[in-house]
Amino acid sequence: MPVIRKLSGLEILDSRGRPTVRASCELAGGVIAHASVPSGASTGAAEAHELRDRDLKRFGGLGCRKAVETISGELNKALARDIANQRELDEAMLKLDGTPNKSRLGANALLAVSIAFARACAMEKRQPLYQHFADILGNKAPTLPRMTINLFSGGKHAGGQVPIQDVLVVPARAKSIDEGLAVTYAVYHAAAELIHEKYQMRLLRADEGGLAPPAKSAEALLQDAVQSILDAHLQPGRDVMLAVDVASSHFYENGRYQLNEQSLDSAGMIRTLREWVDRYPIVSVEDGLAEDDWPNWPALREAIAGKAIVVGDDFLCTNPDRIRRAIDANAASALLLKVNQIGTLTEAADACRLARSAGWNVTISARSGETEDDWLADLAVGWSGDQIKIGSITQSERLAKYNRLLAIEAETSLSIVKWPN
Ligand code: PGA
Ligand code: ZN
């Protein structure tokens, strides 16, 4: 049984230059593991609470000293003992916190400890991290995920020049991670050239490294994506598909979607999404409707069933209660799984199992504020994520994960999962 000797925290900076949390977990056997947690910008209202210092004189109030002190203080005091397994650790932390949304100790503190402990256990067992994650979930057959990779960005990640957040490349026919990245490189550089010529501008990159051209509408961005695939001498809809993160909660006001010049009700928004799916090779639609627009999600699923998966991000917040409700209502067909939306590995594993029990896809996702830590790649493999969403191929905090996938691919004979449609 693992015995925790010491837990400690460190405030570090994420890819947007904002503070975040790193935890270290030392086991009695001498192993020391570290884990850093990410942070979102376009967050869902039902996410677990991220503890920030709110001291406006330091990092505009975003400091994480309190979360770090919690790890080195209260959590270390209570948990430096023998811990049977991940569930015991996570449940002990939940009990200590005692709030429904982790607002006392902070989901950032809890998740950092949760993952550092998992990594320490894997190191002690001399197991690759993805294998240990697979054991936590009870997954007997890890696989390599299908990548969905940011090409264009808008919304909250890019200053809102178009309301939708991401247009992503899906190298659906690539037989390996390596081939998928090579295909994406070709499309990304074709897009960069197209943007340069069309908009006469140097490249501006958004939070996740996506290109952020001043397109006039979401449709223009989708059209540019198709043109970039063609310019890369690839066939849209065959070699390369598209995914969209509409992130529509962020342009939903008083029951209406403010999409560029249009103000749409829910039925109008569903019609628009259906048109996009018909006109462009879109195989995944994330947060097509707002997180509060519950009654209309089943109609969205119905409207694009068989063409694209209906992914819930802000809508579900990796929260088992929300996922259960969505399964009962037939309101989605895929879970976007962000571990820090819920705050511990054990609860995220429960969310993953629940989604799978309904036959849903699971997309393992990074956040807009990331670190150089690469555990997300191991999680996607260990939990057999159907998709992984990391961001663009241009920034080190994203590449840490892509490069870890490449390493896992090279070291194993694991195969890449097929696109569901
Ligand atoms: P976030 O964005 O990390 O800023 O929430 C990612 C997403 O919406 O998928
Ligand atoms: Zn999203």
Question: What does this protein structure show overall?
Answer:
The structure is a single chain. With 421 residues, this protein is of the alpha/beta class. The protein has 2 domains: 4-126, Enolase-like, domain 1, CATH 3.30.390; 146-411, Enolase-like C-terminal domain (TIM Barrel, Alpha-Beta Barrel), CATH 3.20.20.120. The chain contains 13 helices and 14 strands. An 8-stranded mixed barrel has the order 4-5-6-10-11-12-13-14, surrounded by 6 helices. A 3-stranded antiparallel β-sheet has the order 1-2-3. β7 (252-253) and β8 (256-259) form a beta hairpin. α3 crosses α4 and α9 (320-329) packs parallel to α11 (345-357). The longest helix is centred in the middle third of the chain and has 23 residues, at 177-199. The protein is globular. The termini are far apart. The model has no long low-confidence stretch (mean pLDDT 96). 2-phosphoglycolic acid is lined by residues 40-43, 165, 245, 247, 313, 365, 367-368.
List the helices and strands and how they pair.
Layout: E1 4-13, E2 19-27, E3 32-36, H1 65-79, H2 86-97, H3 107-124, H4 129-137, E4 146-153, E5 166-170, H5 177-199, H6 218-231, E6 241-245, E7 252-253, E8 256-259, E9 262-264, H7 266-279, E10 282-286, H8 297-304, E11 309-312, H9 320-329, E12 334-337, H10 339-342, H11 345-357, E13 361-365, H12 375-382, E14 387-389, H13 396-411
Parallel strand pairs: 4-14, 6-10, 10-11, 11-12, 12-13, 13-14
Antiparallel strand pairs: 1-2, 2-3, 4-5, 5-6, 7-8, 8-9
Helix pairs in contact: 1-3, 2-3, 3-4, 4-12, 5-6, 7-8, 9-11, 12-13
The structure holds 2-phosphoglycolic acid and zinc ion.
